[in-house]
Amino acid sequence: MTSAQKLPDVFVVDGARTPFLKSRNAPGPFAAADLAVAAGNALLARQPFRPDQLDEVILGCAAPSADEANIGRIAALRMGCGNRVPGWTVMRNCASGMQAIDSGLADIRLGRADLVLAGGVDALSRAHLLFSDAMVRWLAQWYAAKSFGERARLVTKFRPGMLVPVIGLLRGLTDPVIGINMGQTAENLAARFGISRTQMDFHSMRSHQRTAAAVDAGLFGEIVPIADGDGRLYCTDDGVRLDSSVPRLAKLRPVFDRRHGNITAGNSSQVSDGASWLLLASQAALDRHGLTPLGRIVDTQWAGLDPAQMGLGPVHAATPILQRHGLGLNDVDAWEINEAFAAQVIGCIEAWKDDDYCRRELGLPGALGVLDERRLNIDGGAIAIGHPVGASGARIVLHLLHVLRRRGGGRGIASICIGGGQGGAMLVETT
Fold first, then answer.
1. How many folded domains does the chain comprise?
2. Which of 383, 382, 406, 409 is nearest to 393 (CA)?
3. Whole-angstrom distance, CA of residue 104 vs CA of residue 426
4. Of 3, 94, 358, 401, which has the fewest CB atoms closer than 10 Å, so is most exposed?
5. Which residues are known to be catalytic?
């Protein structure tokens, strides 16, 4: 019996998320806190306990706005959890929502909590536009000037180019250590494993097809509708393309390496707004409130790797879990690997197949095997659904549990790559 199995059980009782709304180059209808509160209110309203009976609220967020500092506490108060329920915020880039779950898991296992609301949120359509450093310095001098003459001289030093904004989202998606953006890391994986543009576009088309089929079959029951201030109702993810095809995707131009690259907007995840929550409970909380769980969290793992190869993070995080539990890739009934880029997910599959990679990078005797893609992202992924960075780690865990439940139970792994060269993975099971 492994040490993970000896730890107290932590259950996922329920969960909910908003629709993921595609950014359309303008601020979306909801701030991040609005999204978190809407999903949380719907989730808490169907529970047999009051919001103020939670032990804590933990929310992952990668890009809160200036007026959403410690957005976890803001959401907790707005959801009616009361002054005594602590709320806090975690940030691990794309895995912020998964980190929130792991933090709640740890507190329950340590006996510090019995009932935790954990999740993630981001409203990337509202990512900041920033002044350049040159403009900030000019403004600092302007406000410090004490005479008309000083300001007149400053006017002569002003240049219109100083007003060109810095796009906060693009700055945030560029690794400050190695100086390349996330899209280029996906190009690196495509070059390393010889992944073609056609392979990427086929994967993307399949993601849209699977998501569209799941929507038609009513398989996204975790989504709760939300309404904006004008009464407009949002009921489903709005980036799914019913007309997606390899020929259509092939017409799109590369975005990150315009001369030699193959990563396009069509085979990348969508920039989105959204929130997702999971309700975590100990056995004592189940008994106290008469709760029936969706499943339980068995194990988690975090890993680091070369930031330039960050998309392989799921390989480095999920492999130790497989080893600890004596599992092969296809002993896992269902997988969710967040689709940051098609090349990134394909790269993970290729890495597990590669003898040299598994020996040199993972310390294995050889290739781990070939992942059956019929088990992977069964209802599509972030290319079709969207990727609100802070929310995605929570979304894939929640949806994985629903997939397992409707299939009669089993084990699943949710895993995600993380900007900066990390990976996260979580093993869950249902009965």
1. 1
2. 382
3. 13
4. 3
5. 94, 417
DSSP structural state of residue 223 = B
Digit-coded pLDDT (tens) for 258-311: 888 999 999 999 999 999 999 999 999 999 999 999 999 999 999 999 999 999
Distance CA 43, CA 81 (A): 13
Query: Tokens 């912020």 label which residue?
Result: 96
Strands (E) across 157-271 are located at 166-167, 226-227, 233-234
Asked if the structure places residue 31 within a domain, the reply is: no
Which residue, chain included where needed, has tokens 């394909």? 346
> 152-172 burial by CB neighbour count: b if 16+ within 10 A, else e?
eeeeeeeeeebeeeeeebeeb
> Which pTM was predicted?
0.95
**Distance in Å from the first CA to the final CA of the chain:** 20
Query: Is 37 contained in some domain?
Result: no
- On whether the CB atoms of residues 97 and 276 are closer than 8 A, the answer is yes
Tell me which residue of 17, 1, 431 sits closest to 224, measured CA to CA.
17
Half-sphere exposure of 131 (CA within 13 A, CB side): 10
Q: What is the 3-state secondary structure (H, E, C) of 370-409?
A: CCCHHHECCCCCHHHHCCCHHHHHHHHHHHHHHHHHHCCC
Whether 75 contacts 39, CB under 8 Å: no
Structure tokens at 403: 């997939």
Question: What is the rounded CA–CA span in Å between residue 105 and residue 114?
Answer: 10
Evaluate whether 186 touches 343 at the Cβ level (below 8 Å): yes
| Parent domain of 187 | 182-218+298-430
Residue 252 lies in a domain: no
CATH of the domain at 200: 3.40.47.10
